[in-house]
Amino acid sequence: MTTDDKATCAKSLELMAIGTLEEMAEVFAPDALNRESKAEPAATRGAGPEAFHATALWLREAHSDLRWEVRDAVQEGDLVVLHTTMTGRQTGPFTAYDENASVAMVFPPTGRAFSVTQTHWFRMREGRIVEHWANRDDRTLGEQLGWTPPSPVYLAKMLLARRRARHRA
User: Fold this and answer.
1) Please, which domain of life does this record's source organism belong to (predicted)?
2) Is the pTM of this model over 0.70?
3) How far apart are CA 162 and CA 6, in angstroms?
4) Residue 70 near residue 84, CB atoms below 8 Å
């Protein structure tokens, strides 16, 4: 392993915010797995750059000005860990999915900014990412965006948004 692995992992987060599929193919191996895709759309649940690009598009649909600031990077063998702060603004609906990739919940846009800590774990092989998983502070994210606790009006908006999303699916 090289110190370039840490840079590759940091680059992968930048690409989640602004990267193309072609750029993602440079950092994600063809068989790369995202262990976090269980609450994401069906297109994200495969392997390789295409699945990670689908995750990026899903996140970008809900959030503008998305970025990750790397606070610390540690490597032990083929494992790289990045402690980050994710920031952005919720300008679109955020849709969460169940284990069958069906719409579980929709959080309508609030226009609010957020800043939350996350720890991303990457397994590397030959300079590319082959596995990713994360620990996220989703509770703080929900509080900052006004999702939790939801006001009665926002709760009604959530239910209507979920109904529309399920109807489109």
Assistant:
1) Bacteria
2) yes
3) 38
4) yes
What mean pLDDT do residues 49-63 have? 98
Structure token pair of residue 13: 């987060």
CA atoms within 13 A on the CB side of 66: 19
Contact 109, 62 (CB under 8 A): yes
Specify whether the CB–CB gap between 101 and 42 falls below 8 A. yes
Amino acid symbol at 38 = K
Topology given in CATH for the domain delimited by 4-168: Nuclear Transport Factor 2; Chain: A, (3.10.450)
Question: Whole-number mean pLDDT of the chain?
Answer: 96
Q: How far apart are CA 76 and CA 132, in angstroms?
A: 15
Contacts for 152 with CB less than 8 Å, ≥ 6 apart? none
Residue 29 and residue 129 in contact, taking contact as beta carbons nearer than 8 Å: yes
Retrieve residue 49's tokens.
């750059």
